[in-house]
Amino acid sequence: SVLTQPPSVSAAPGQRVTISCSGSSSNIGNNHVAWFQQLPGTAPKVLIYHTNERPSGIPDRFYGSKSGTSATLGITGLQTGDEADYYCGVWDTSLSVYVFGAGTKVTVL
Amino acid sequence: EAQLVESGGGLVQPGGSLRLSCVASGFTLRDYWIHWVRQGPGKGLVWVLRVNGDGSITNYADSVKGRFIVSRDNAKNTVDLQMNSLGVEDTAVYYCVRGLGGNDYWGQGTLVTVSS
Asked: What is the CB neighbour count within 10 angstroms for residue B8?
């Protein structure tokens, strides 16, 4: 993938996890990043858009940030219901395509 | 409430064609870029293409360029995806997405299986 994410992260309930998404100047470095959550057997939904904005209904336990060519999704107060696959996505200006990371599986221990 | 409903998926033989439709409701379709994203069995998300509000601008992933064609009819609130020369690698759930990357909205997806 053009974007690099860790395959998995895990933590106990109530803890915090962060998921990194590494790209380049043609994507993360100059465009807004989105983060998507996909619960088992369901369609993805946006958690974070424009790098750090949350849609209505998404709790502030989920937050996004960016530094240079890397972005981060953070989840605080981890809950069992947060077990899912998480994807970062961004427009790549050089390739003229939208690119996704390979996804990160979050496990609540 | 915004809604996107995909249809048209099914089983098709390699080399065959299939036409998917995405019907929108609850919002003004012409105001949004529409994207198609697919997900192979047990795989991650893969962007396929996008089309702007009036259909004048399209971008395609290299893997589908020349084989897939997107069209939209804002008056009928539909976006169609014509898929030709299908290969087994095109087997996936296909999602229609409004405004991908923004405060977007995803349909529930339609399954396309390419197999002999």
From this structure: 16
3-class state of residue A82 by DSSP: helix
Contact call for residues B60 and B84 (beta carbons, < 8 A)? no
Q: What is the mean pLDDT of residues A60-81?
A: 97
Residues A85 and A102: beta-carbon distance below 8 Å: no
B78: tokens are 């539909």
Phi, psi of B30, deg, nearest 5: -65, -15
- Residue A99 has its nearest CB partner, among B47, B102, B109, at B47
Which own/partner contact pairs does B30-35 have at CB distance under 8 Å and 24+ positions apart? B30/B54, B30/B74, B32/B98, B32/B99, B33/B98, B33/B99, B33/B100, B34/B70, B34/B72, B34/B79, B34/B96, B34/B97, B34/B98, B35/A98, B35/B96, B35/B97, B35/B98, B35/B100
List pLDDT tens digits, range B81-95. 999 999 999 999 999
Helix (H, G, I), strand (E, B) or coil at B27: coil
The answer to whether residue A30 neighbours chain B at the CB level (below 8 Å) is: no
Best of B45, B46, B70 to mutate (most A CBs within 10 Å, chain A): B45
Per residue in A21-63, pLDDT (tens digit) is: 999 999 999 999 999 999 999 999 999 999 999 999 999 999 9
